[in-house]
Records
---
Amino acid sequence: MNTGLFPPSKRRGLVAHGLLIACLAALSGWGFLRLSTTPIGPGFVFFILIGLLAFAPIPLLGYRAYALHRASYQIDRDSLELRWGLRDEIIPLADIEWVRPAEDLTQPLTAPPMVLPGAILGLRRHPDLGIVEFLASSARGLLIVGTSRRVYAISPAEPVEFLDTFARAVELGSLREARPRSRYPSFVFSNAWASGLVRYLWLATLFLNLGLAAWISLLIPSSPTFALGWRPNQSPEAVPSTQLIIVPLASIMLNLVGWIAGMFLFRWTKRRAIAFMLWTFGAISSLLFLLAVLFIVAAPV
């Protein structure tokens, strides 16, 4: 029997995630842009909240879009592999007790909270099945996989073909004993945190950015203007002090992108050197942003 690869439906979910990311990025950019020209007061707080709150979900939505793009369910004669982003579950066929459509359940299966198109993810307790882990993109064609350890809800784009392939694999029997394996996104973080160098780089970057943000928050109300450039006649060009908020925001966003990219690369042993380089550059760039603020404060207005 050939290996059966059954991806979930992806187009609708990827489009929805892409639109959400674009809208939130535009709203966050607008908030930060207005922030740089708004004097200290309620309006300043309002725009900084808009910028931060709109930006906060973007990394999660980006990961969920990546996870959906990578998602697949794969059957061979030995095992069933459920892959969803950094989540990877290998289940020996001998451990699978049954596979059935969710519509056959006597008690309806309720989806986890915070469901988005293309991302029905999380855990839910069912009165008959117990804990059910959802790794699905759509409630349509939902299949339930019952194992000796846990129950999974999946959504292959072709559920009938999936059931047929599973039945043939069970009839043919296993060629070798498969070992169960569970991998979660948190495993990448814990493996990276186990390295002393990684901990030092992460903590150094964190504290440098916290110090930068605290320093800027004290500088903005202390002076109405600062020099952020030079005129053609070599005299300093004074700008409102609120524009200094751009410095810690740029540092934090740059480091966040580098941290996420490093976590992505750290999964492969051959690419871990690149992850270390990204995190090292993050710490160095945070220090350079601090030095930039020092030069700005020292420059005469």
---
Amino acid sequence: MGILPVLAYLIDWGWLRIGPPYIYININPVIVYLGPLALRWYGLMYVVGIVIGLRVIHGYTARKGMNQDMVYRILWWSVAAGLIGGRLYFVVQQPNFVSYYLAQPQHILATWEGGMAFFGAIFLVIPTIFWRARVERINPLVALDAGVLFAAAGQIFGRIGNIINGDIIGYRSTLPWSTVYQNSNSWACLNPATCNVPVQPASIYELLTNIVLLLLMLYLARRLRRPGVLMLVYLFGYCITQFALFFTRDNLIVSFLGLNWGLKQAQWTSLVLFLVLLPITYLILRYSKPVPPGEVAATYGIPQKPKPALATAGETPEIEEAPAAEPASNSERSEAEVEEAPAAEPASNSDTKRSEAEVKEVNGTANGQGDSKDTLSEGQVTPLRSSDGSTG
């Protein structure tokens, strides 16, 4: 205890003071007002969490064969599903669900008012990632492993937003590390019973367990070769830590299926999720095969669209058939036939002489000239008979 007064003087920034004897938080959840809109630390932490989460999984997705365009296409669907699922699951758990949210439905999706349940985000994001992985033709379990690694990293900054917001309140406590919320705009001070009162720092406990879980997953991410196991580690780790940490949180105790075990809503959800994970674990260990070294994990065992064939070296690429030409006119066809007709072979000397002799014989007969002679060959004369039979 002697060191706490020293720390009190070293860390006294007005918005944060440590000891004695507690941790005092005096942070306005609103950073700045922009007209009717309020920029809050909680929303800013979501943005920071998304950016840091992408940086954390960058190397992992690259090793698994997922390019950045694919990651972004899956990411935006998952972020939307996480916000909707987390908000709806928070709303349905509230005791004033009917009197406030159903009576004024415009508040149901008003995330800027605060209040998110991470289990709801998990329940809606998992089927969303599974669906988008099928669209991208990659192994859904590989995409889910990357998704939970992203969630574990981003959730840390969400917990920082919870600490500033004062929306995770523990039971009253006199422990030296108890937190005291002093800002009138914090969620803790909306209830006079928890404003300026030392309580268990449940949000800090959540932050520390998230850090430990992320470190464990980063260690396993380079060693596990069976898709889906990293997802199981995260889900089991999250539901177990939530079940334990909610014993320190000042939430309503509810019954479930007629069972009154003194548990809160999140603890019942943790139990149900734990039971559901048992058969899922069996199926993953049974049917998800380790990826052999050298194979691309994202596409291993997943049918891909056939790629168009490319001409290899030495092969003549196929030439597309030209469209049929229009029929040519008569004049064009005649000119083409003349151009394409082969040249006649020159006649030999003997053929020429024989043709000349035949022509002369015919001419002589027609004219009745008995004395006409035709030279058949060089140096030979053959007498021709006249029409009356005499020889000339």
---
Amino acid sequence: MVANLDGKYLVMKKNILDASVSTLQFRKLLFFIIVALVSTLMTPASFSSTQIANKSYSTSINGLWFKPSFNSIENTAVRKEVFFNYLLPAVIEKNIEITKLRELIINDKLDALELEELAIKYRLNLPITKEDLLIAIDVLPPSLVLAQAANESNWGRSRFAEDFNNYFGIWCFVKGCGIVPTKRDMNAKHEVATFDSLKDCVDYYVLTLNRNYAYQNLRAIRKSQRDNLSPVTGIALAEGLKGYAEIGEEYVNVIQAVIKFNNLERHDL
């Protein structure tokens, strides 16, 4: 009789424990879904154009830069959505900044000294023309930026993204400029750049694509799209990224696949 009661007790205890585990898993999943939903609701699409222009949404997201712990999000779909919604405001804000600068250039609102400073910043030859500046100073489609960030940072889970806000695998070449990779070749000199914030990282990444010689073809593709009055798309500009990684054309295919699989061009509209 006692043995029978003990057996029933053990079965009951196991059922209670199983129910507790299931409840805990459900709560965790529910939490991440809520985070994703809140993140979705707080993207710039949720704000008016006036709020975006005045950056009044920044204190909610960009100003404090609430940073999710992507490594702790087990559900892949939820992790992706949280990742995109974390980066997207910074990308949109940067594109707004560039658009305003382009308007100043087009409308001749900058003096000679300001134009010369821009030419130096974007590594353009002097004397500078308006067309030269507009080729270099232009927006990047969010789809392209998000796809590269996802690929280079392993969806925000890399050590360099998590600890140093480097979402694009950006290197620097001055001793002490960043973090030495643990698997760096003995004769290599590069370090992985560190940034104080996501905004700083996005700023540098955009500047890199807009001025480095390796991405001259990307800028030419973008100019061609503008000349043809076509939308500037991430799929098209990805063709200019062969110099971003050693694998060249394969890298282009990877970025384009990320854009297509995750329907990222919906953010380019």
